[in-house]
Amino acid sequence: SLCFEQFYSGHRSPHIPYRLLHLVWTHARHLAGYEQQDAHEFLIAALDVLHRHCKGDDNGKKANNPNHCNCIIDQIFTGGLQSDVTCQVCHGVSTTIDPFWDISLDLPGSSTQFWPLSPGSDGSVVNGESHVSGTTTLTDCLRRFTRPEHLGSSAKIKCSGCHSYQESTKQLTMKKLPIVACFHLKRFEHSAKLRRKITTYVSFPLELDMTPFMASSKESRMNGQYQQPTDSLNNDNKYSLFAVVNHQGTLESGHYTSFIRQHKDQWFKCDDAIITKASIKDVLDSEGYLLFYHKQFLEYE
């Protein structure tokens, strides 16, 4: 595309994708302008705009399935999230599979402590920032994301087997993994009386194996037939880190930077138009807001 052609044209100054920015601003008016915006919100808006403007070769499939899309965005970023809701009475399971472009992960908040908060003009509190003693890992966040959740009496669902409303459990797993996996660490929390940034340090790996979080792994364990995945299957679930977006500052006033991997172990820090070399330690020590991994079969030297 023209965007990639301009990006790799060889000019020494950083490429600024004005046309892409204008396209996003045109279709996501709330992001237009130069006020502080959320990087995750912009990512989803950009993917949505490109998804709606890219035309893939559907080979007639779209006529039979309106939800099918073969555009470059879906080929790269779309995965399948499986939701299993199990009735606590008859143990019947209702399964749905939804597409996703990214996975938003909650951060632990049990040990959070807060800065003093100043009241806003509307009675809310602003500039809240939490500091958490201790750390967590990306793997821990994924375990919490995929562990069974009990839906209590206030969230009963109508069971097709019992033909009545029953309590249930819900569990999310990965049915299909995308080529590029984006993990969004939910560092910004908003409620009626509280707005804060969570600064918990999240340790994330250079290489990530998603096999334990696959629906196939869960089904094998439930049937008592769990076996070590074959090398080919396991490799298809393995990812390499290639980009990290960080947020510096507070919720009300901050700045985004990113780390980008060009070759296997060559990293660069992008801070607006200033691009400098970075070490792997710089990358892994960063706070992390958006983490981008690609499947290892795409590894490049």
Automatic annotation (TrEMBL):
SUPFAM superfamilies: Cysteine proteinases. GO terms for biological process: protein deubiquitination; proteolysis. One of its GO terms (molecular function) is cysteine-type deubiquitinase activity. It is found in: Nucleus. Keywords: Hydrolase, Nucleus, Protease, Thiol protease, Transcription, Transcription regulation, Ubl conjugation pathway. Its EC number is 3.4.19.12. Residues 1-296 form the USP domain. It comes from the Eukaryota. It catalyses: Thiol-dependent hydrolysis of ester, thioester, amide, peptide and isopeptide bonds formed by the C-terminal Gly of ubiquitin (a 76-residue protein attached to proteins as an intracellular targeting signal). One of its GO terms (cellular component) is nucleus. It is an enzyme of class 3 (hydrolase). It holds the Pfam family UCH. This is ubiquitinyl hydrolase 1.
